[in-house]
Amino acid sequence: MKISKSLKNLIFWEITFPMILLIFGIYHGFMQVLYRAGIIKSFDFLGITYYQGLTLHGVINAIVLTTFFGVAFGNAIVSYFLKREINLKIAWFSFWLMFVGTLITAYSILIQKTDVLYTFYPPLVAPPTFYLGVVLIVIGSWIAFFNWIPTYLNYKKENKETPLAVYGIFSAFIIWFLCTIPVAIEILFMLLPKSLGIVKEINNLLARTLFWMFGHALVYFWLLPIYVGLYVIMPKTINSKLFSETFARLTFALFIIFSIPVGVHHQFADPGIGTIWKLIQGFLTFIVAIPSFITAFTISATLEYAGRKNGSNGLFSWLFKLPYFDKEKWLFAYFISGLIVFIFGGITGIVNASYNVNLVVHNTSYVPGHFHLTLGGLVFLGIIGISLHLITKITGKEIQLKFLNLLVPYLWLIGSLIFGFGMMAGGILGIPRRTNMGLTYSNPDSPLFNPHWQVWNYISFLGGTIMFLAMVIYFIVFFSTIFSKKIKEEILEIESSEPYENGHNKILNEFKLWLFLAIILIILAYTFVYYDVFRATGG
Ligand code: HEM
Ligand SMILES: [Cu+2]
Predict the structure, then answer these.
(1) Whole-number Å distance between alpha carbons of 215 and 213
(2) CB atoms within 10 A of CB 193
(3) Measured at the alpha carbon of residue 393, what is the angle toward residues 8 and 401, in degrees to the nearest 5?
(4) Do the beta carbons of residue 533 and residue 206 sit within 8 Å?
């Protein structure tokens, strides 16, 4: 589909701007493993302190990159599948808000030396600029979403079915909109007034509870756009059919319901919230296994269909008939590597989600070990793979250095599994997260030095180095592609194939019911949590 220059530029910058920042985000990831292994033994490195670097790593990778990508992919999906151009003035306005917000946040972290980490828990307080920047990023992304709604309603007047990709991206943004409301309340009514000196004290437990209402659902905002990639783009890449569109839609719908009323599983160790509510939200967390298993089965069947089409007859031999190393179908390598890592991410998450077992790994390196296999696995490989894919389409360029490009996801797969193993095994032994270990536990000159932990720190360092290498290669491929000569027409194309099955269910083409159920469940799961919070803290 031909698109206007303005829309093309919009998508281009929404992908490329965060990609430039990601260079710093990845650099600081690598710094983290160097500190942790005791290779850097100082308070800071090249003028950036340990916690400043960790803040940059979390903010760039987990907030800026993911939000820009969601918006960019959403703009592309809505324009392509609804066959209507979105209101570009509003879309650009949303871009500029996010852009300015990012610059203000960067100013706060780099110049004002803000180091509250990407979770900005009180009692840590940042300068007002940090919150202002984050708020602008969020409002910018809301505006992008609101901008799709008239286009969608206009489309719905003439069409009954909501295209699957649109259904998925809307689900992601419905979750995002709902879950950013509590964090907006936290920032606007608590952190910002505190930072400005308007109020002296704030209720830390309340702030944390509002944060985690957002913080867990956030991970589905990251994940759902990638599920769109898996359900819509991947089948076509491997010449297959999505096994069941009904189940794909059901997955999105279930995520709308169950994403938010589970945030307390991040607060198992927080005093003040009643055990029973923690346990209930712990159980609700496990319900998320349902859409995850549906996805696992749908995607496996989709892969099997492709393998059988390629001539496999055996029970599992189809697994060997997939284009893992096909340089032209490189996007599949990103998806399959992400999926493999995700299996480990999903399984290890059971430990975090289990109320009692969680206490063993609480605040240890197990936690980042786990989420580099989810966020840093499927989500991240999906983001960088789809970004590169879209860039080649809208700029009419051919992917450069194809062999190196194919290497990226596999190196990342190996690196992140080693990294995750080191971090998680170390975490079980008690290695803490968010600690400058170069000054303490990994430093033979420190009284805190713990030689038994060193081996795990080195394993994490090895994995982290391989991940770093994968990303150096990725950046080379990405920027050589952008700077290469245009050889094709510039088009917006998101290839998709007919599904194997589609039940055309009315309720799986709409959002009302799911939104209604989500709100009811949020009220049920959270009313008493807030009651407890207020009771425990005296209001
Ligand atoms: C070269 C690749 C990477 C390396 C070596 C790396 C390494 C690390 C390490 C060691 C930590 C733990 C710090 C600590 O708690 O002590 C960490 C934290 C984190 N990483 Fe990465 N990482 C990489 C890529 C990524 C990517 C791609 C993402 C997301 C898209 C990501 C997101 C995060 C987040 C959100 C945190 C938590 C920060 C915090 O605790 O405030 N990382 N990373
Ligand atoms: Cu969670």
Answers:
(1) 6
(2) 15
(3) 125
(4) yes
- The answer to whether residue 27 sits within a structural domain is no
Per the residue annotation, which of 208, 265, 266, 372 is the catalytic one? Answer: 372
Q: In this structure, what token pair is assigned to residue 376?
A: 């840093």
Model confidence pLDDT, tens digit, residues 454-475: 999 999 999 999 999 999 999 9
76 in Cβ contact with 93 (< 8 Å): no
Q: Is 433 a catalytic residue?
A: yes
Verify whether residue 36 is a known catalytic residue.
no
Residue 112 CA, distance from chain mean position: 27
- The whole-angstrom separation of Cα 325 and Cα 302 is 18
Ligand 1, CB within 6 Å, residue ranges: 26, 29-30, 32-33, 36, 54, 57-58, 61-62, 117-118, 368, 372, 375-376, 380, 433-435, 464, 467-468, 471
Structural domain of 440: 363-505
CA–centroid distance, residue 121 to ligand 2 (Å): 16
For ligand 1, mutation pick of 22, 32, 33, 456 (most atoms within 8 Å of CB): 32
Could you give phi then psi for residue 45, rounded to 5 degrees? -145, 130
Q: Is residue 165 part of a domain?
A: no
Sign of CA dihedral 483, 485, 489, 494: negative
Instruction: Supply the pTM of this predicted model.
Output: 0.97
Confirm whether 9 is domain-assigned: no
Within a domain: 426: yes
Tokens representing residue 341 in the block: 């890592």
Rounded distance between C-alpha atoms, residue 221 and residue 169, angstroms: 9
pLDDT in tens, 361-407: 999 999 999 999 999 999 999 999 999 999 999 999 999 999 999 99
The amino acid sitting at 538 is G
Query: Quick one: 345 exposed, middle or buried, by C-beta within 10 A (0-12, 13-18, 19+)?
Result: buried
Give the number of domains in the chain. Answer: 1
Catalytic residue among 216, 265, 266, 389: 216
Instruction: Classify burial at 355, counting beta carbons within 10 Å of its beta carbon; exposed 0-12, middle 13-18, buried 19 or more.
Output: middle
Buried b (16+ CB within 10 A) or exposed e, 414-440: bbbbbbbbbbbbbbeebbbbebbbbbb
